[in-house]
Predict the 3D structure of the following.
Amino acid sequence: MERRHTVVIVGGGTAGITVAAQLKRKDKSLDVAIIEPSEDHFYQPIWTLIGGGVFEKEISKRKTADYIPKGVTWIKDWVTGFSPESNTVSLKSGKEIGYDFLVVAPGIQLDWHKIKGLPEALGKGGVCSNYGYEHSEYTWEVLRNLKKGNAIFTQPATLVKCGGAPQKIMYLTADYLRRNGSLDKVDINFMSPGLVVFGVPEFAATLKKVIERYGITFNFQKELVAIKGKENLATFKVTEPDGTVHEKDYPYDMIHVVPPQSAPDFIKSSPLVNADGWVEVDPGTLQHTRYANVFSLGDVSNTPNAKTGAAVRKQAPFVVQNLLDVKNTGKIQTSKRYNGYTSCPLITGYGKLVLAEFDYNNKPDPSFPFDTTKERWSMYFMKTTLLPLLYWNGMLRGRA
């Protein structure tokens, strides 16, 4: 074993750094290490606005080193395996790191390869995606060159980070076309493998009005399975109302693709996961169901809520306090439980946003004393200006 730390955090993204910062604020003497290979840290929620031409992509990237909390050891390596029985983590370099407590927060994996032809077609010929720093600017290029034809927006059958993001860029596209007099020349289709516009009825009602306003066709039970880039055709698996399944090609001039997503491969092959491949935790305490010294939060855990940064902001204090309780007393002391709060700021146009906040039961859980089911400029301002400041200067510093 190379070294041992009191707390080892796997992942230096939003969840990992937030937990590390809060732990050090609670106990400056605590021996904490973060295992994270990336030199760069990204504020991903803003990628939709980069795709919509509001910001340049560089605004979303900063150096990881600038946000590793003071006194935290940064192990710049890749995790390859876990041995929870011996309290060790294996690294790509061949080293093993020991821990007293483990926090698993490596985020989610983008499985581009699971859509046939997508890796080869992405970034050219109108095939774009905001799911990636290197891809988001091409969305804006495609959007501003779109004058007529077919625009398709997809959502996979898997869980995804920010479940509203597949729709947000569609609404920005429609609003851009409206402002430039081309909306009636472009046929906009959203392709969903599901059966609802949005999982929370109160917010779905508002989105249905937005869809009607822009003249968008919202298609259900259609899942993208292939891209034929040379022919500008997208192949969808279509499930008919009677249950029959077939494939159908749709022509496109623009197609915004959201890739299937899953837990990282090194997580799926570990003993920490449930049958679906997510880290298995108690949804209220975020403590592992089989290993009492292991906690997990963020996109990789099996909590049944939307995978967003807002969820991480609410989850982190529970992980920190419950971990310290177990460390200091042997068990969790508080009866308070994480209720599944998450937030999805649904951009419905330039200067318009619906702030969808809800819990595990898909019940609205608003933070503001007004009707958040309505489109508001104030919420758009919060999304574009205030939330990035809160992220860089609040969450990642352990202050929010």
Observations:
- The chain has two domains: 3-108+263-337, 110-259.
